[in-house]
Specification:
Helix content: over 70%
Distance between the termini: 35 Å
Largest sheet: none
Oligomer: single chain
Number of helices: 17
Strand content: under 5%
Radius of gyration: 20 Å
Number of domains: 1
Length: about 375
């Protein structure tokens, strides 16, 4: 295996581990909220703040990553995520909770745009961009799926206070990647410097790029809302942290497999048909979940898992489309497609949490699932 291919594998491994930490909080947040005496509405505000720092800053860090080609964001991203997110269950009050979540979330914001830009560059050299990007994204999704499972297991059997032992994984990998991920300066000339204004103007005035970002936001709207709200629903029904962790694990790992299969299904169905399916299938599936979660819980979990698979099918496709559309801005595009989309949804998450508290979680999820269906009108312009 050549060195570029090996670099993609290590970057994907870093994505896997980084997103483990990102996925830790969802299943245990109801229990952290109970410990600190905060409501669903306040808890979703805290999660929203975390998502803003892990997402909205990604285009900015992507800008610096594209202009200097150094690996600094990859290493420090993993270090910050692995140190501070496992500290959140030890928070004595909501202020420490927010502080730890912000610092850990900045680590995620560091890692994603630069790692994605590096993968695109190494994969382009090997002419395997679609497959390698699908693998990279799927590894992040699978890592994100293991986060709830690991957090629930530690909480159930050791207690939330033992969560910091998980830091060892990320710190070890960060040091290992320093050896195995080559410097881009060895294989690529330093790009012509582009100003912040020029870069962001070019991206934000590109109509197709805006359409891709809207489509990305709609996918994130569904997955984030499901992962944030449903643990509170299941806790109120009396389910254990481990059960909630297993449910989220299956949902997110199904999304990872969706990303992994994305390119093959795209070749079979065509790009537009894949996007249409991914965006429209969520609504009937969420309605089915809402009709079955009380009396047929096993069937509802199966439906929930299928939602994860179908929603994530389109993610590698939109990412490659965006980076191909604006090849000079690979990391910034990744920051917008992966980070900015999450950040916008994160801002809305506070309102979503308050609304769900008053009108019911499943009712709100059904309404949210309508938005991806509406956004399919943009696909014909791609």
């Amino acid at each position: 295996m050549n060195r570029n291919k090996m670099a993609v594998k290590w970057l994907s491994a870093g994505h896997f581990v980084n997103d483990i930490y990102t996925g830790i909080l969802n299943p245990i947040m109801p229990f952290i909220a109970a410990k600190l005496g905060i409501t669903l509405a306040i808890a979703t505000v805290v999660i929203s703040i975390s998502n803003i720092f892990s997402s909205l800053l990604q285009p900015i860090f992507g800008f610096f990553a594209d202009n200097m080609l150094k690996r600094v964001f990859i290493f420090w991203g993993l270090i910050l995520s692995s140190v501070f997110i496992p500290l959140t269950p030890l928070s004595k009050n909501v202020y420490f909770l927010i502080l730890f979540m912000i610092l850990g979330s900045i680590g995620s914001s560091f890692y994603h745009p630069q790692a994605s830009g590096f993968v695109n560059r190494f994969a382009t050299i090997n002419n395997t961009c679609a497959d390698d990007m699908g693998f990279f994204i799927s590894m992040g999704s699978i890592g994100y799926s293991f986060g709830p499972l690991i957090a629930a297991t530690v909480t159930q059997y050791l207690g939330m206070g033992h969560m910091p032992i998980l830091s060892i994984i990320g710190l070890s990998l960060a040091l290992t990647m320093f050896v195995f991920v080559p410097k881009l300066s060895n294989i690529e000339k330093k790009p012509e410097y582009k100003t912040f204004k020029e870069t962001f103007y070019t991206i934000l005035t590109n109509k197709k790029m805006n359409y891709l970002m809207i489509i990305s936001m709609m996918k994130v709207l569904v997955t984030t809302s499901c992962c944030t709200l449903l643990p509170f629903l299941w806790k109120d029904m009396g389910y254990s942290p481990f059960y909630i962790g297993i449910a989220l694990f299956l949902f997110i790992i199904a999304g990872g497999f969706g990303s992994l299969c994305s390119h093959k299904i795209e070749l079979l169905l065509g790009t537009k048909q894949l996007l249409y399916f991914s965006m429209t299938a969520t609504l009937p599936l969420i309605i089915l979940f809402s009709l079955t979660y009380i009396h047929h819980p096993i069937f509802s979990i199966i439906t929930f898992v299928i939602i994860g698979f179908t929603t994530m099918l389109a993610q590698p496709v939109t990412m490659v489309m965006g980076q191909t559309l604006l090849p000079k801005y690979k990391s910034v595009v990744a920051g917008f497609m992966n980070g900015f989309a999450w950040g916008v949804v994160a801002i809305a998450l506070s309102l979503i949490g308050v609304t769900a508290q008053h009108y019911g979680i499943t009712n709100v999820l059904i309404i949210l699932a309508i938005f991806p269906v509406i956004s399919t009108i943009l696909i014909k312009y791609l």
